[in-house]
Design brief:
The complex is a heterodimer of chains A (460) and B (129). Chain A is 35% helix and 27% strand. Chain A is of the alpha+beta class. Chain A has 3 domains: 100 residues, Rossmann fold (3-Layer(aba) Sandwich); 68 residues, ATP-grasp fold, A domain (Dna Ligase, domain 1), CATH 3.30.1490; 253 residues, ATP-grasp fold, B domain (D-amino Acid Aminotransferase, Chain A, domain 1). In chain A, the strands form 6 sheets. An 8-stranded antiparallel sheet of chain A has the order 14-13-10-11-12-15-22-20. Chain A has a 5-stranded parallel sheet with strand order 3-2-1-4-5. A 4-stranded antiparallel sheet of chain A has the order 6-9-7-8, with helices on one face. In chain A, helix 1 links the parallel strand 1 and strand 2. In chain A, helix 12 runs antiparallel to helix 13. The radius of gyration of chain A is 22 Å and the shape is globular. Chain A starts with a strand and ends with a helix. The model of chain A has no long low-confidence stretch (mean pLDDT 95). Chain B has a 4-stranded antiparallel sheet. Chain B has a 4-stranded antiparallel sheet with strand order 7-6-4-9, with no helix packed on it. In chain B, strand 1 and strand 2 form a beta hairpin. The two termini of chain B are 40 Å apart. The mean pLDDT of chain B is 85. The chains are: A alpha+beta (460), B alpha+beta (129). The interface between A and B is medium-sized, with 17 and 14 residues.
């Protein structure tokens, strides 16, 4: 049975992206919206719009029962979850399957296995993918001491149960282990009600490199090259680019092969990303996690390979074999993506929802903008503040960067604060130009008075 | 040009008719030479309707006793909405009688969709005013 009508369980630019891909494939679309998004651009672009519930995401976009009921009620035979919200929720994939709706993404069991940090790490090890040396289930200090000595300092202590940096402690030497261990345990207990710790090698100068994969129902898995997402702030990606930079070609080849091996080992169906951390000092890479969804930064790969990833997701969900071979995947030139959000960077990235009074987006050769925004659009305060993604390409990185800087200068948004001034200041830095940044670089730059001043000037 | 220069008696009558048939409660037109102010008191309205909308998504089924013209009291079961995982009861909040059932039984409804129009009984209107 082939897909004819897709339910889109998301909002904003990714909803628009999926609607466009589905429409191009000759399929009908039904968009599930919250009350706050009834008049959005994706709502107008979809064949039909259904209101799921009130504005808060918990009552609309995150309500699995409402989402699948609406998909079924509107006669949809497939569902695309986008990213965020329920995109990596195995229960959604399972409920869709139970209701005869094709979930556009991996099977529920794949999402479940890869979504759990410990299980995913085990699967990676089994597939022969290097993982950051570490030890789980550390409950007492003696244990921590033995583990740290075996792994080698510096080490990172973190809560087994949590994320988001809470309960995380970097330990440089054995002398510092006891106080760090006590603090990490107390924080983990307070934040997650579980003080079991995880200890791993701390990577000081890390690059974040992720490999895009596609797998079909017939066991074929391909990689579509990699993206560098080293530029982050508090684990949120800001700028993504590809192909990888400052990683030796032999290591890049190993990462790509590792990603394919891991995906193939679980019979991965659909689009996915295998994230790695590259230790610049040690010239080694380690498995981080698998994202079982289409990612925000997927256009970087699309611009490099010419492959429409959302169209491929739909094709795979339809039970068709991939119509690409690994030899068809050729990365051409360089692509850079900037995430533009409704935040005031000069004021600690304070959210800035509200009415966009003017929206003048850059245009030109090799510029792509994925956005649901326009003049007259009211950015609701309830959701993630992403306004759009600006993707610029060039035959080489220098050209792409020059085009991106020019495009950011040309981009004018009025009525709300955006991160455009911040991005302009960031991309003007020589470290970015040289590509010698690490995942902690942005936080360090933000501390410089000159940089803050520059961002501040750019803000309204 | 002044408002007076523009409006004849027939024009004013037409505006008043339009106002009476509208849902507006007041209307003010002003010009340099004249002003027209129309308003209505709430109590002059012949009736007040209350829309009962879907509080959830799912398949709508009206209660078998709930037919057009039926009188309802607060708390009366009007029907329900069934999603995959739950059934939500629809109950009247005010006394009145049903003047419209907007959705046929068995149809999928979205959140906020109008299901019933309840014409409030006079005491409910008084309470609302």
């Amino acid at each position: 049975m082939s897909v004819t009508r897709i339910f889109i369980a998301n909002r904003g630019e990714i909803a628009l992206r999926v609607i466009r891909a589905a429409t191009a494939a000759g399929l009908e679309t039904v968009l599930g919206v919250s009350e706050a998004d009834r008049d959005s651009l994706p709502a107008r672009m979809a064949s039909r719009t259904v209101c799921l519930g009130p504005a808060p995401a918990s009552a609309s976009y995150l309500n699995i029962d409402a989402v699948v009921t609406a998909a079924k009620g509107t006669g949809c035979d497939a569902l695309h979850p986008g990213y965020g919200f329920l995109a990596e929720n195995a229960a959604l994939a399972d409920l869709c399957a139970a209701q005869g709706i094709t979930f556009i993404g991996p099977r529920g069991d794949t999402i479940r296995a890869l979504g759990d940090k410990i299980t995913a790490r085990g699967l990676a090890e089994t597939a022969g993918v290097p993982v950051v040396p570490g030890r789980d289930q550390i409950t007492d200090f003696a244990d921590a001491k033995v583990a740290a000595a075996a792994i080698g300092y510096p080490v990172l202590l973190k809560a087994t149960a949590g994320g988001g940096g809470r309960g995380m402690q970097v330990v440089r030497s054995e002398a510092d282990l006891q106080p760090a261990f006590d603090t990490a345990r107390a924080e983990a207990r307070a934040a997650f009600g579980n003080d079991t710790l995880y200890l791993e090698r701390f990577i000081g100068k890390a690059r974040h490199v992720e490999v895009q994969v596609l797998g079909d129902r017939f066991g074929t898995v391909l990689h579509l090259g990699e993206r560098d997402c080293t530029l982050q702030r508090r684990h949120q990606k800001i700028v993504e680019e590809g192909p990888a930079l400052h990683v030796p070609a032999a290591i890049v080849a190993q990462m790509r092969a590792a990603a394919v091996d891991l995906a193939a080992s679980v019979g991965y169906e659909g689009a996915g990303t295998v994230e790695f951390i590259y230790d610049t000092d040690a010239s080694a890479f380690y498995f981080l996690e698998v994202n079982t969804r289409i990612q925000v930064e997927h256009p970087v790969t699309e611009m490099l390979t010419g492959v429409d990833l959302v169209a491929q997701q739909i094709r795979i969900a339809n039970g068709l074999p991939l119509d690409l071979a690994q030899s068809d995947i050729i990365l051409t030139g360089h692509a850079i993506e900037c995430r533009i959000t409704a935040e005031n960077a000069a004021a600690g990235f304070r959210p800035s929802p509200g009415l966009i009074t003017s929206w003048q987006a850059p245009t030109g050769v090799d510029i792509r903008l994925d956005s649901h925004c326009h003049a007259g659009y009211n950015v609701p305060p309830y959701y993630d503040s992403l306004l759009g993604k600006l993707i610029v390409t060039g035959p080489d990185r220098d050209t792409a960067l020059a085009r991106m800087r020019a495009a950011l200068q040309e981009f004018v948004v009025e009525g709300i604060d955006t991160t455009l001034p911040f991005l302009q200041a960031l991309l003007a830095r020589s470290e970015f130009e040289k590509g010698t940044v690490s995942t902690r670089w942005v936080e360090a730059v933000m501390q410089e008075p000159d940089f803050s001043e520059q961002v501040n000037r750019g803000q309204r | 040009m002044s408002l007076r220069a523009h409006l004849t008696d027939a024009d004013v009558m037409q505006i008043m008719r339009a106002f009476r048939n509208s849902t507006l409660t007041s209307l003010e037109l002003t010009g340099p030479g004249a002003a027209l102010h129309l308003s209505r008191r709430r109590s002059t309205r012949a009736f007040a309707d209350e829309l009962i909308v879907a509080p959830y998504v799912g398949i709508f089924t009206p209660h078998p006793d709930i037919i057009l013209g039926a009188s309802v009291a607060p708390g009366d079961l009007l029907g329900h909405i069934r999603s995959i995982g739950q059934t939500v009861d629809l109950r009247a909040g005010s006394p009145g009688h049903l003047v419209e059932i907007s959705v046929p039984s068995g149809r999928f409804v979205e959140f906020g969709q109008t299901l019933f129009t309840l014409r409030l009984s006079p005491q409910a209107q008084g309470a609302a005013a």
